[in-house]
Amino acid sequence: MLQHPSCTKGYTRDLDKAVSPEQTVRHIRSVLARTGHHLLERTRRVDTGRLGIPVYMSICGSKAREIMPTRKQMGKGASAAQAEASALMEFIERYSLFSFLARTGERGKGAQLTWSQAEDRFGPSLIPVQEILGSVQEERPSSEAVQIMDLVPWDFCPASDLHTGQEVVLPLNWFQTINEFNGSSAGNTDVESALQGLCELIERHVCAEINAQCPELPSIDPKTMTDPVLKDLLAAFDRNGIVVWLKDFSLGLDVPTVGVLAYDPATFPHSSEIVFTAGTATSPEKAAIRALTEVAQLGGDFESGSRYEPSGLPKPKTLDQCAWLRRGRAVPITALPDISHPDMGVELSRVAKVLAQHKYPVYIVRTTDPDLQIPAHYSIVPGFGFRERSTHASLGLFVGRILAEQQPEDLAEHGLRVLQDLYPQGHFLPFFQGILALRQERFSQALDAFSRAEDIQPTAQDKAFAAFYQAFCLSREAQWDRIKPHLDRAIQGAPDVHAFYNLRGVGAFKTGRYEQAAEDFRSALELDPGSAMDLVNLGLCLKRAGQIHEALSCLQAGLELDPGMETARAELEELLAGKQDREPG
Length: 585
Prior knowledge:
Layout: H1 21-35, E1 40-45, E2 55-60, H2 62-65, E3 72-76, H3 80-105, E4 111-113, H4 115-122, H5 129-134, H6 142-149, E5 154-161, E6 167-171, H7 172-179, E7 184-186, H8 190-213, E8 219-220, H9 228-239, E9 243-248, E10 257-263, E11 275-280, H10 284-299, E12 330-331, H11 344-357, E13 363-366, E14 376-380, H12 395-406, H13 409-422, H14 429-439, H15 443-456, H16 460-476, H17 484-493, H18 498-510, H19 514-527, H20 532-544, H21 548-561, H22 566-582
Parallel strand pairs: 8-12
Antiparallel strand pairs: 1-2, 2-3, 4-5, 5-6, 5-13, 7-14, 9-10, 10-11, 13-14
Helix pairs in contact: 1-3, 8-11, 9-10, 12-13, 12-14, 13-14, 14-15, 15-16, 16-17, 17-18, 18-19, 19-20, 20-21, 21-22
Protein backbone atom coordinates (compact mmCIF):
# COMPACT_ATOMS: atom_id res chain seq x y z
CA MET A 1 0.00 0.00 0.00
CA LEU A 2 1.28 3.46 -0.97
CA GLN A 3 2.61 5.59 1.89
CA HIS A 4 1.42 9.21 1.76
CA PRO A 5 3.42 12.37 2.52
CA SER A 6 3.98 13.24 6.16
CA CYS A 7 1.73 15.91 7.71
CA THR A 8 2.21 16.28 11.45
CA LYS A 9 -0.77 17.60 13.41
CA GLY A 10 -0.09 21.08 14.73
CA TYR A 11 -3.51 21.48 16.38
CA THR A 12 -5.58 18.77 18.08
CA ARG A 13 -7.89 20.47 20.59
CA ASP A 14 -11.31 19.88 19.01
CA LEU A 15 -10.39 18.85 15.46
CA ASP A 16 -7.11 17.58 14.02
CA LYS A 17 -5.45 20.17 11.79
CA ALA A 18 -1.99 20.99 10.49
CA VAL A 19 -2.10 24.47 12.10
CA SER A 20 -4.29 26.31 14.58
CA PRO A 21 -7.64 27.74 13.43
CA GLU A 22 -6.37 31.26 14.13
CA GLN A 23 -3.54 30.69 11.64
CA THR A 24 -6.02 29.27 9.14
CA VAL A 25 -8.30 32.31 9.38
CA ARG A 26 -5.39 34.73 8.99
CA HIS A 27 -4.01 32.86 5.99
CA ILE A 28 -7.32 32.56 4.12
CA ARG A 29 -8.17 36.20 4.73
CA SER A 30 -4.77 37.33 3.48
CA VAL A 31 -5.13 35.21 0.34
CA LEU A 32 -8.64 36.53 -0.36
CA ALA A 33 -7.49 40.10 0.20
CA ARG A 34 -4.57 39.60 -2.19
CA THR A 35 -6.72 38.25 -5.03
CA GLY A 36 -9.04 41.26 -4.98
CA HIS A 37 -11.74 39.34 -6.84
CA HIS A 38 -14.64 40.05 -4.43
CA LEU A 39 -14.90 36.34 -3.71
CA LEU A 40 -16.01 36.55 -0.08
CA GLU A 41 -18.39 39.17 1.24
CA ARG A 42 -17.94 38.47 4.96
CA THR A 43 -18.16 35.94 7.78
CA ARG A 44 -20.44 36.31 10.77
CA ARG A 45 -21.43 34.35 13.83
CA VAL A 46 -25.03 33.12 13.61
CA ASP A 47 -25.76 31.00 16.70
CA THR A 48 -28.04 32.49 19.38
CA GLY A 49 -25.52 31.85 22.16
CA ARG A 50 -27.82 29.55 24.10
CA LEU A 51 -25.56 26.50 23.83
CA GLY A 52 -22.30 28.42 23.77
CA ILE A 53 -21.21 26.33 20.76
CA PRO A 54 -20.22 28.79 18.02
CA VAL A 55 -21.57 28.58 14.48
CA TYR A 56 -20.29 30.82 11.69
CA MET A 57 -21.50 31.63 8.20
CA SER A 58 -19.38 32.64 5.21
CA ILE A 59 -21.25 34.70 2.62
CA CYS A 60 -20.20 34.66 -1.02
CA GLY A 61 -19.11 37.81 -2.79
CA SER A 62 -20.22 38.87 -6.26
CA LYS A 63 -17.45 37.02 -8.12
CA ALA A 64 -18.09 33.74 -6.32
CA ARG A 65 -21.85 34.02 -6.89
CA GLU A 66 -21.22 33.92 -10.64
CA ILE A 67 -20.16 30.27 -10.49
CA MET A 68 -21.46 28.86 -7.18
CA PRO A 69 -24.99 27.48 -6.70
CA THR A 70 -24.82 28.28 -2.97
CA ARG A 71 -24.71 31.77 -1.48
CA LYS A 72 -23.57 30.92 2.03
CA GLN A 73 -21.70 28.19 3.85
CA MET A 74 -21.82 27.18 7.50
CA GLY A 75 -18.88 26.39 9.76
CA LYS A 76 -18.72 24.58 13.06
CA GLY A 77 -16.27 23.98 15.89
CA ALA A 78 -15.90 23.95 19.65
CA SER A 79 -14.28 27.41 19.57
CA ALA A 80 -15.14 30.58 17.70
CA ALA A 81 -11.86 30.47 15.81
CA GLN A 82 -12.44 26.88 14.66
CA ALA A 83 -16.04 27.62 13.61
CA GLU A 84 -14.89 30.62 11.54
CA ALA A 85 -12.02 28.62 10.04
CA SER A 86 -14.52 25.90 9.14
CA ALA A 87 -16.87 28.38 7.44
CA LEU A 88 -13.96 29.81 5.45
CA MET A 89 -12.66 26.38 4.42
CA GLU A 90 -16.19 25.41 3.39
CA PHE A 91 -16.23 28.42 1.11
CA ILE A 92 -12.80 27.59 -0.31
CA GLU A 93 -13.74 23.98 -1.08
CA ARG A 94 -16.98 24.94 -2.82
CA TYR A 95 -15.48 27.81 -4.79
CA SER A 96 -12.47 25.69 -5.79
CA LEU A 97 -14.69 22.82 -6.96
CA PHE A 98 -17.09 24.91 -9.04
CA SER A 99 -14.37 27.04 -10.58
CA PHE A 100 -12.53 23.79 -11.45
CA LEU A 101 -15.68 22.33 -13.00
CA ALA A 102 -16.14 25.50 -15.02
CA ARG A 103 -12.55 25.37 -16.27
CA THR A 104 -12.72 21.65 -17.07
CA GLY A 105 -16.00 22.02 -18.97
CA GLU A 106 -14.83 24.92 -21.13
CA ARG A 107 -14.34 24.00 -24.76
CA GLY A 108 -10.67 23.47 -25.46
CA LYS A 109 -9.70 23.29 -21.77
CA GLY A 110 -10.65 19.69 -20.98
CA ALA A 111 -10.96 16.52 -23.01
CA GLN A 112 -14.68 16.33 -23.89
CA LEU A 113 -15.05 12.91 -25.47
CA THR A 114 -17.36 9.95 -25.69
CA TRP A 115 -16.25 6.88 -23.77
CA SER A 116 -15.00 5.10 -26.89
CA GLN A 117 -13.00 8.16 -27.91
CA ALA A 118 -11.50 8.30 -24.42
CA GLU A 119 -10.49 4.63 -24.66
CA ASP A 120 -8.64 5.39 -27.88
CA ARG A 121 -6.92 8.47 -26.49
CA PHE A 122 -6.06 7.41 -22.94
CA GLY A 123 -5.76 3.64 -23.25
CA PRO A 124 -4.98 1.88 -19.94
CA SER A 125 -4.91 5.23 -18.06
CA LEU A 126 -8.71 5.43 -18.36
CA ILE A 127 -10.51 3.99 -15.36
CA PRO A 128 -12.38 0.74 -16.19
CA VAL A 129 -15.95 1.12 -17.37
CA GLN A 130 -16.90 -1.49 -14.78
CA GLU A 131 -16.06 1.11 -12.13
CA ILE A 132 -18.60 3.43 -13.75
CA LEU A 133 -21.16 0.65 -13.42
CA GLY A 134 -20.01 0.05 -9.85
CA SER A 135 -20.53 3.71 -8.99
CA VAL A 136 -24.29 3.14 -9.31
CA GLN A 137 -24.24 -0.54 -8.22
CA GLU A 138 -25.40 -1.76 -11.63
CA GLU A 139 -24.51 -5.09 -13.20
CA ARG A 140 -24.38 -4.97 -16.99
CA PRO A 141 -21.96 -6.19 -19.69
CA SER A 142 -19.09 -3.78 -20.37
CA SER A 143 -20.08 -3.51 -24.03
CA GLU A 144 -23.54 -2.20 -23.10
CA ALA A 145 -22.05 0.16 -20.54
CA VAL A 146 -19.80 1.64 -23.24
CA GLN A 147 -22.80 1.96 -25.58
CA ILE A 148 -24.66 3.94 -22.89
CA MET A 149 -21.68 6.13 -21.98
CA ASP A 150 -21.13 6.90 -25.69
CA LEU A 151 -24.51 8.66 -25.84
CA VAL A 152 -23.09 11.86 -24.33
CA PRO A 153 -19.67 13.56 -24.27
CA TRP A 154 -17.76 13.63 -20.98
CA ASP A 155 -15.26 16.03 -19.44
CA PHE A 156 -12.24 13.84 -18.76
CA CYS A 157 -9.60 14.98 -16.29
CA PRO A 158 -6.62 13.50 -14.43
CA ALA A 159 -6.93 12.03 -10.93
CA SER A 160 -4.67 10.14 -8.54
CA ASP A 161 -5.37 6.55 -7.57
CA LEU A 162 -5.04 6.69 -3.78
CA HIS A 163 -4.05 3.01 -3.58
CA THR A 164 -1.23 3.08 -6.15
CA GLY A 165 -0.35 6.74 -6.56
CA GLN A 166 -0.72 6.36 -10.35
CA GLU A 167 -2.37 9.06 -12.45
CA VAL A 168 -5.59 7.95 -14.10
CA VAL A 169 -8.20 9.68 -16.25
CA LEU A 170 -11.89 9.78 -15.35
CA PRO A 171 -15.12 11.48 -16.52
CA LEU A 172 -15.45 14.25 -13.95
CA ASN A 173 -18.96 15.32 -14.88
CA TRP A 174 -20.23 11.74 -14.49
CA PHE A 175 -19.12 11.68 -10.86
CA GLN A 176 -20.24 15.23 -10.24
CA THR A 177 -23.69 14.28 -11.59
CA ILE A 178 -24.10 11.29 -9.28
CA ASN A 179 -22.23 12.64 -6.22
CA GLU A 180 -22.83 16.41 -6.51
CA PHE A 181 -20.33 18.06 -4.14
CA ASN A 182 -20.04 15.18 -1.69
CA GLY A 183 -16.31 14.59 -1.37
CA SER A 184 -15.19 18.17 -2.03
CA SER A 185 -12.71 19.39 0.54
CA ALA A 186 -10.08 22.02 1.36
CA GLY A 187 -7.38 22.16 3.97
CA ASN A 188 -4.17 23.71 5.18
CA THR A 189 -2.23 20.97 3.34
CA ASP A 190 -2.95 18.48 0.57
CA VAL A 191 -3.02 15.60 3.05
CA GLU A 192 -5.37 17.41 5.44
CA SER A 193 -7.73 18.23 2.57
CA ALA A 194 -7.78 14.71 1.08
CA LEU A 195 -8.31 13.13 4.50
CA GLN A 196 -11.21 15.49 5.19
CA GLY A 197 -12.87 14.63 1.86
CA LEU A 198 -12.57 10.88 2.38
CA CYS A 199 -13.95 11.07 5.91
CA GLU A 200 -16.97 12.94 4.57
CA LEU A 201 -17.52 10.29 1.88
CA ILE A 202 -17.33 7.49 4.45
CA GLU A 203 -19.81 9.36 6.65
CA ARG A 204 -22.30 9.81 3.79
CA HIS A 205 -21.93 6.19 2.68
CA VAL A 206 -22.53 4.56 6.06
CA CYS A 207 -25.42 6.95 6.69
CA ALA A 208 -27.03 5.94 3.39
CA GLU A 209 -26.69 2.25 4.29
CA ILE A 210 -28.07 2.81 7.79
CA ASN A 211 -30.95 4.93 6.52
CA ALA A 212 -31.95 2.19 4.09
CA GLN A 213 -31.76 -0.64 6.62
CA CYS A 214 -32.44 0.92 10.07
CA PRO A 215 -30.29 -1.79 11.69
CA GLU A 216 -29.77 -2.36 15.39
CA LEU A 217 -26.56 -0.53 16.28
CA PRO A 218 -24.61 -0.03 19.51
CA SER A 219 -25.43 3.01 21.63
CA ILE A 220 -22.45 4.95 22.97
CA ASP A 221 -22.47 5.55 26.73
CA PRO A 222 -21.76 9.27 27.25
CA LYS A 223 -20.34 8.54 30.70
CA THR A 224 -17.36 6.87 29.00
CA MET A 225 -16.20 10.12 27.37
CA THR A 226 -12.87 11.38 28.67
CA ASP A 227 -11.88 14.00 26.07
CA PRO A 228 -12.36 17.41 27.80
CA VAL A 229 -13.77 19.14 24.70
CA LEU A 230 -16.22 16.31 24.13
CA LYS A 231 -17.34 16.41 27.76
CA ASP A 232 -17.86 20.18 27.54
CA LEU A 233 -19.99 19.82 24.40
CA LEU A 234 -22.20 17.19 26.02
CA ALA A 235 -22.52 19.34 29.13
CA ALA A 236 -23.72 22.26 27.02
CA PHE A 237 -26.60 20.18 25.68
CA ASP A 238 -27.36 18.75 29.11
CA ARG A 239 -27.46 22.18 30.79
CA ASN A 240 -30.14 23.27 28.37
CA GLY A 241 -32.28 20.15 28.70
CA ILE A 242 -31.52 18.90 25.20
CA VAL A 243 -31.71 15.12 24.84
CA VAL A 244 -28.79 13.56 22.96
CA TRP A 245 -28.50 9.98 21.69
CA LEU A 246 -25.11 8.76 20.47
CA LYS A 247 -24.77 5.75 18.15
CA ASP A 248 -21.92 3.79 16.61
CA PHE A 249 -22.41 4.25 12.86
CA SER A 250 -19.03 2.79 11.83
CA LEU A 251 -20.81 -0.16 10.17
CA GLY A 252 -17.74 -2.38 9.96
CA LEU A 253 -15.66 0.03 7.87
CA ASP A 254 -12.98 0.34 10.60
CA VAL A 255 -13.14 4.13 10.41
CA PRO A 256 -15.12 5.61 13.33
CA THR A 257 -18.43 7.30 12.59
CA VAL A 258 -20.66 8.61 15.37
CA GLY A 259 -24.36 9.23 14.76
CA VAL A 260 -26.19 11.78 16.91
CA LEU A 261 -29.87 12.49 17.39
CA ALA A 262 -30.79 15.52 19.49
CA TYR A 263 -34.01 17.31 20.41
CA ASP A 264 -35.29 19.73 23.02
CA PRO A 265 -38.48 18.48 24.74
CA ALA A 266 -39.26 22.06 25.84
CA THR A 267 -39.18 23.63 22.38
CA PHE A 268 -39.98 20.79 19.95
CA PRO A 269 -41.90 21.07 17.67
CA HIS A 270 -43.00 24.72 17.89
CA SER A 271 -39.55 26.38 17.74
CA SER A 272 -37.07 23.57 17.14
CA GLU A 273 -36.60 20.35 15.19
CA ILE A 274 -35.20 16.90 15.76
CA VAL A 275 -31.62 17.00 14.50
CA PHE A 276 -30.17 13.77 13.12
CA THR A 277 -26.62 13.79 11.79
CA ALA A 278 -23.24 12.05 12.00
CA GLY A 279 -19.52 12.71 11.98
CA THR A 280 -16.52 10.70 10.78
CA ALA A 281 -12.90 11.16 11.82
CA THR A 282 -9.88 8.99 12.51
CA SER A 283 -10.59 8.73 16.26
CA PRO A 284 -13.94 8.10 17.97
CA GLU A 285 -13.62 11.25 20.09
CA LYS A 286 -12.99 13.52 17.11
CA ALA A 287 -15.86 11.84 15.24
CA ALA A 288 -18.18 12.57 18.17
CA ILE A 289 -16.96 16.20 18.37
CA ARG A 290 -17.56 16.63 14.66
CA ALA A 291 -21.09 15.22 14.98
CA LEU A 292 -22.03 17.28 18.05
CA THR A 293 -20.80 20.56 16.55
CA GLU A 294 -22.80 19.65 13.43
CA VAL A 295 -25.86 19.30 15.67
CA ALA A 296 -25.22 22.81 16.97
CA GLN A 297 -24.88 24.08 13.39
CA LEU A 298 -28.14 22.49 12.23
CA GLY A 299 -30.19 23.00 15.38
CA GLY A 300 -30.26 26.80 15.54
CA ASP A 301 -29.65 26.51 19.29
CA PHE A 302 -33.02 24.66 19.49
CA GLU A 303 -34.97 27.86 20.06
CA SER A 304 -34.88 30.02 16.93
CA GLY A 305 -37.52 28.30 14.81
CA SER A 306 -34.93 27.76 12.05
CA ARG A 307 -35.24 24.87 9.62
CA TYR A 308 -32.28 22.86 8.40
CA GLU A 309 -31.92 21.04 5.11
CA PRO A 310 -31.08 17.35 5.66
CA SER A 311 -28.26 15.76 3.71
CA GLY A 312 -26.61 12.50 4.79
CA LEU A 313 -29.50 11.47 7.05
CA PRO A 314 -33.22 12.29 6.87
CA LYS A 315 -34.87 14.76 9.22
CA PRO A 316 -37.30 12.95 11.54
CA LYS A 317 -40.64 14.66 12.08
CA THR A 318 -41.63 12.67 15.17
CA LEU A 319 -39.87 10.73 17.89
CA ASP A 320 -41.76 7.61 16.80
CA GLN A 321 -39.74 7.70 13.56
CA CYS A 322 -36.58 7.46 15.68
CA ALA A 323 -37.63 4.49 17.81
CA TRP A 324 -35.26 2.12 15.98
CA LEU A 325 -32.31 4.13 17.29
CA ARG A 326 -33.23 3.10 20.83
CA ARG A 327 -32.29 -0.48 20.05
CA GLY A 328 -28.76 -1.75 20.60
CA ARG A 329 -26.50 -2.52 23.52
CA ALA A 330 -24.58 0.23 25.33
CA VAL A 331 -20.85 0.37 24.61
CA PRO A 332 -18.01 2.68 25.68
CA ILE A 333 -16.68 5.09 23.08
CA THR A 334 -13.44 3.09 23.11
CA ALA A 335 -15.36 0.21 21.48
CA LEU A 336 -15.38 2.12 18.19
CA PRO A 337 -12.53 1.63 15.71
CA ASP A 338 -9.58 4.01 16.02
CA ILE A 339 -7.05 4.65 13.23
CA SER A 340 -5.66 7.91 14.62
CA HIS A 341 -1.98 8.85 14.52
CA PRO A 342 -0.06 12.09 15.19
CA ASP A 343 0.74 12.23 11.46
CA MET A 344 -2.21 12.78 9.09
CA GLY A 345 -0.19 11.21 6.27
CA VAL A 346 -0.21 7.93 8.21
CA GLU A 347 -3.96 8.34 8.82
CA LEU A 348 -4.59 8.86 5.10
CA SER A 349 -2.67 5.65 4.35
CA ARG A 350 -4.75 3.83 6.96
CA VAL A 351 -8.02 5.06 5.43
CA ALA A 352 -6.78 3.95 2.01
CA LYS A 353 -5.92 0.52 3.40
CA VAL A 354 -9.38 0.13 4.97
CA LEU A 355 -11.09 1.00 1.69
CA ALA A 356 -8.81 -1.32 -0.29
CA GLN A 357 -9.69 -4.17 2.06
CA HIS A 358 -13.35 -3.55 1.27
CA LYS A 359 -12.60 -3.47 -2.49
CA TYR A 360 -13.37 0.21 -2.94
CA PRO A 361 -11.23 2.13 -5.48
CA VAL A 362 -10.38 5.70 -4.45
CA TYR A 363 -9.59 8.62 -6.77
CA ILE A 364 -8.51 12.12 -5.78
CA VAL A 365 -8.92 15.06 -8.18
CA ARG A 366 -6.87 18.14 -7.30
CA THR A 367 -9.18 21.17 -7.58
CA THR A 368 -6.88 23.79 -6.04
CA ASP A 369 -7.66 27.19 -7.53
CA PRO A 370 -4.58 28.61 -9.31
CA ASP A 371 -5.12 32.09 -7.85
CA LEU A 372 -5.84 31.02 -4.28
CA GLN A 373 -3.35 28.14 -4.01
CA ILE A 374 -5.18 26.78 -0.95
CA PRO A 375 -5.20 22.96 -1.19
CA ALA A 376 -8.58 21.65 -2.41
CA HIS A 377 -9.67 18.27 -3.74
CA TYR A 378 -12.62 16.23 -4.96
CA SER A 379 -12.54 12.66 -3.68
CA ILE A 380 -14.35 9.85 -5.48
CA VAL A 381 -15.08 6.33 -4.25
CA PRO A 382 -17.01 4.38 -6.92
CA GLY A 383 -19.48 2.12 -5.14
CA PHE A 384 -20.20 4.47 -2.24
CA GLY A 385 -23.83 5.45 -1.79
CA PHE A 386 -25.56 8.66 -0.78
CA ARG A 387 -29.01 9.06 0.72
CA GLU A 388 -29.90 11.75 -1.81
CA ARG A 389 -29.20 9.47 -4.77
CA SER A 390 -32.04 7.43 -6.24
CA THR A 391 -32.36 3.96 -4.75
CA HIS A 392 -33.03 2.76 -8.30
CA ALA A 393 -29.93 4.29 -9.87
CA SER A 394 -28.42 3.07 -13.14
CA LEU A 395 -26.27 4.31 -15.99
CA GLY A 396 -29.44 4.78 -17.98
CA LEU A 397 -31.06 6.97 -15.34
CA PHE A 398 -28.18 9.44 -15.13
CA VAL A 399 -27.31 9.42 -18.83
CA GLY A 400 -31.00 9.88 -19.60
CA ARG A 401 -31.13 12.89 -17.30
CA ILE A 402 -28.11 14.47 -19.03
CA LEU A 403 -29.62 13.78 -22.45
CA ALA A 404 -32.99 15.29 -21.56
CA GLU A 405 -31.67 18.33 -19.73
CA GLN A 406 -28.43 19.26 -21.51
CA GLN A 407 -27.88 17.71 -24.92
CA PRO A 408 -29.04 19.08 -28.30
CA GLU A 409 -32.57 17.99 -29.03
CA ASP A 410 -31.77 15.64 -31.92
CA LEU A 411 -29.04 13.87 -29.91
CA ALA A 412 -31.34 13.69 -26.90
CA GLU A 413 -34.15 12.08 -28.90
CA HIS A 414 -31.75 9.52 -30.41
CA GLY A 415 -30.18 8.76 -27.03
CA LEU A 416 -33.52 8.21 -25.31
CA ARG A 417 -34.51 5.78 -28.09
CA VAL A 418 -31.28 3.81 -27.50
CA LEU A 419 -32.01 3.72 -23.76
CA GLN A 420 -35.52 2.47 -24.52
CA ASP A 421 -33.96 -0.57 -26.21
CA LEU A 422 -31.51 -1.20 -23.36
CA TYR A 423 -33.99 -0.48 -20.54
CA PRO A 424 -37.36 -1.63 -21.94
CA GLN A 425 -38.92 -1.39 -18.47
CA GLY A 426 -37.03 1.77 -17.47
CA HIS A 427 -39.23 3.78 -15.13
CA PHE A 428 -37.22 6.90 -15.87
CA LEU A 429 -37.77 6.98 -19.66
CA PRO A 430 -41.24 8.58 -19.87
CA PHE A 431 -40.15 11.08 -17.24
CA PHE A 432 -37.14 12.17 -19.29
CA GLN A 433 -39.27 12.19 -22.45
CA GLY A 434 -41.43 14.68 -20.59
CA ILE A 435 -38.42 16.81 -19.63
CA LEU A 436 -37.26 16.90 -23.25
CA ALA A 437 -40.75 17.83 -24.46
CA LEU A 438 -40.79 20.65 -21.91
CA ARG A 439 -37.53 21.97 -23.34
CA GLN A 440 -39.19 21.90 -26.77
CA GLU A 441 -42.24 23.72 -25.33
CA ARG A 442 -44.51 20.88 -26.42
CA PHE A 443 -46.54 21.09 -23.24
CA SER A 444 -49.38 18.70 -24.12
CA GLN A 445 -46.88 16.00 -25.10
CA ALA A 446 -44.91 16.62 -21.90
CA LEU A 447 -48.08 16.42 -19.81
CA ASP A 448 -48.92 13.04 -21.34
CA ALA A 449 -45.38 11.74 -20.70
CA PHE A 450 -45.38 12.80 -17.04
CA SER A 451 -48.84 11.26 -16.59
CA ARG A 452 -47.51 7.93 -17.91
CA ALA A 453 -44.40 8.29 -15.78
CA GLU A 454 -46.29 8.81 -12.52
CA ASP A 455 -47.91 5.38 -12.57
CA ILE A 456 -44.63 3.47 -12.97
CA GLN A 457 -42.34 5.37 -10.60
CA PRO A 458 -40.80 3.12 -7.93
CA THR A 459 -41.04 5.47 -4.93
CA ALA A 460 -43.50 7.97 -3.49
CA GLN A 461 -41.02 10.80 -4.05
CA ASP A 462 -40.52 9.85 -7.70
CA LYS A 463 -44.29 9.77 -8.19
CA ALA A 464 -44.53 13.17 -6.50
CA PHE A 465 -42.12 14.77 -8.97
CA ALA A 466 -44.01 13.28 -11.92
CA ALA A 467 -47.21 14.80 -10.51
CA PHE A 468 -45.48 18.15 -9.97
CA TYR A 469 -44.31 18.30 -13.56
CA GLN A 470 -47.84 17.70 -14.78
CA ALA A 471 -48.87 20.80 -12.85
CA PHE A 472 -45.85 22.65 -14.23
CA CYS A 473 -46.86 21.80 -17.81
CA LEU A 474 -50.34 23.17 -17.18
CA SER A 475 -48.90 26.32 -15.60
CA ARG A 476 -46.85 27.00 -18.74
CA GLU A 477 -50.14 27.25 -20.64
CA ALA A 478 -51.75 29.33 -17.86
CA GLN A 479 -54.26 26.57 -17.04
CA TRP A 480 -54.12 27.56 -13.38
CA ASP A 481 -57.50 26.08 -12.50
CA ARG A 482 -56.22 22.57 -13.34
CA ILE A 483 -52.96 22.38 -11.40
CA LYS A 484 -54.13 21.89 -7.80
CA PRO A 485 -55.00 18.14 -7.91
CA HIS A 486 -51.56 17.31 -9.30
CA LEU A 487 -49.81 19.39 -6.64
CA ASP A 488 -51.96 17.88 -3.90
CA ARG A 489 -50.65 14.45 -4.95
CA ALA A 490 -47.10 15.77 -5.14
CA ILE A 491 -47.24 17.20 -1.62
CA GLN A 492 -48.83 14.06 -0.25
CA GLY A 493 -45.99 11.97 -1.70
CA ALA A 494 -43.13 14.33 -0.78
CA PRO A 495 -44.23 16.92 1.79
CA ASP A 496 -40.76 18.48 2.19
CA VAL A 497 -40.24 19.87 -1.32
CA HIS A 498 -40.32 23.64 -1.42
CA ALA A 499 -41.21 23.97 -5.12
CA PHE A 500 -44.48 22.05 -4.70
CA TYR A 501 -45.92 24.58 -2.24
CA ASN A 502 -44.60 27.50 -4.26
CA LEU A 503 -46.36 26.43 -7.46
CA ARG A 504 -49.58 25.54 -5.63
CA GLY A 505 -49.47 28.99 -4.05
CA VAL A 506 -49.00 30.65 -7.44
CA GLY A 507 -51.95 28.69 -8.79
CA ALA A 508 -54.16 29.72 -5.89
CA PHE A 509 -53.10 33.36 -6.31
CA LYS A 510 -53.82 33.32 -10.05
CA THR A 511 -57.35 32.02 -9.40
CA GLY A 512 -58.07 34.58 -6.66
CA ARG A 513 -57.79 32.23 -3.65
CA TYR A 514 -55.48 34.52 -1.69
CA GLU A 515 -55.84 32.90 1.73
CA GLN A 516 -54.96 29.47 0.31
CA ALA A 517 -52.06 31.02 -1.60
CA ALA A 518 -50.74 32.69 1.56
CA GLU A 519 -50.90 29.37 3.41
CA ASP A 520 -48.85 27.68 0.68
CA PHE A 521 -46.23 30.43 0.60
CA ARG A 522 -45.92 30.18 4.39
CA SER A 523 -45.36 26.43 4.00
CA ALA A 524 -42.71 27.12 1.35
CA LEU A 525 -40.99 29.56 3.71
CA GLU A 526 -40.92 26.98 6.48
CA LEU A 527 -38.84 24.81 4.17
CA ASP A 528 -36.71 27.68 2.83
CA PRO A 529 -36.85 30.71 5.14
CA GLY A 530 -34.40 32.58 2.91
CA SER A 531 -36.61 32.48 -0.20
CA ALA A 532 -37.01 36.09 -1.26
CA MET A 533 -39.56 35.13 -3.92
CA ASP A 534 -41.85 33.42 -1.43
CA LEU A 535 -41.64 36.36 0.97
CA VAL A 536 -42.70 38.67 -1.83
CA ASN A 537 -45.43 36.27 -2.95
CA LEU A 538 -46.76 36.13 0.60
CA GLY A 539 -46.68 39.93 0.71
CA LEU A 540 -48.73 40.15 -2.48
CA CYS A 541 -51.32 37.75 -1.07
CA LEU A 542 -51.58 39.76 2.14
CA LYS A 543 -51.91 42.97 0.14
CA ARG A 544 -54.83 41.52 -1.83
CA ALA A 545 -56.40 40.39 1.46
CA GLY A 546 -56.13 43.90 2.89
CA GLN A 547 -53.51 43.02 5.52
CA ILE A 548 -51.35 46.04 4.71
CA HIS A 549 -48.96 46.05 7.66
CA GLU A 550 -48.06 42.37 7.23
CA ALA A 551 -47.75 42.83 3.46
CA LEU A 552 -45.29 45.69 3.93
CA SER A 553 -43.17 43.59 6.26
CA CYS A 554 -42.97 40.67 3.80
CA LEU A 555 -42.22 42.83 0.76
CA GLN A 556 -39.49 44.72 2.61
CA ALA A 557 -37.92 41.47 3.87
CA GLY A 558 -38.00 39.98 0.37
CA LEU A 559 -36.34 43.02 -1.16
CA GLU A 560 -33.63 42.98 1.50
CA LEU A 561 -32.76 39.46 0.38
CA ASP A 562 -33.03 40.22 -3.35
CA PRO A 563 -33.02 43.95 -4.17
CA GLY A 564 -33.38 43.21 -7.90
CA MET A 565 -37.08 42.26 -7.80
CA GLU A 566 -38.54 45.31 -9.52
CA THR A 567 -42.16 44.12 -9.45
CA ALA A 568 -41.94 43.71 -5.69
CA ARG A 569 -40.39 47.18 -5.38
CA ALA A 570 -43.23 48.71 -7.37
CA GLU A 571 -45.82 46.95 -5.19
CA LEU A 572 -44.03 48.15 -2.05
CA GLU A 573 -43.89 51.77 -3.27
CA GLU A 574 -47.59 51.62 -4.15
CA LEU A 575 -48.38 50.34 -0.66
CA LEU A 576 -46.23 52.98 1.02
CA ALA A 577 -47.87 55.72 -1.02
CA GLY A 578 -51.32 54.44 -0.20
CA LYS A 579 -50.50 54.14 3.46
CA GLN A 580 -49.11 57.66 3.51
CA ASP A 581 -52.24 59.00 1.82
CA ARG A 582 -54.39 57.50 4.58
CA GLU A 583 -52.36 58.97 7.41
CA PRO A 584 -53.82 62.08 9.07
CA GLY A 585 -52.30 65.49 8.41
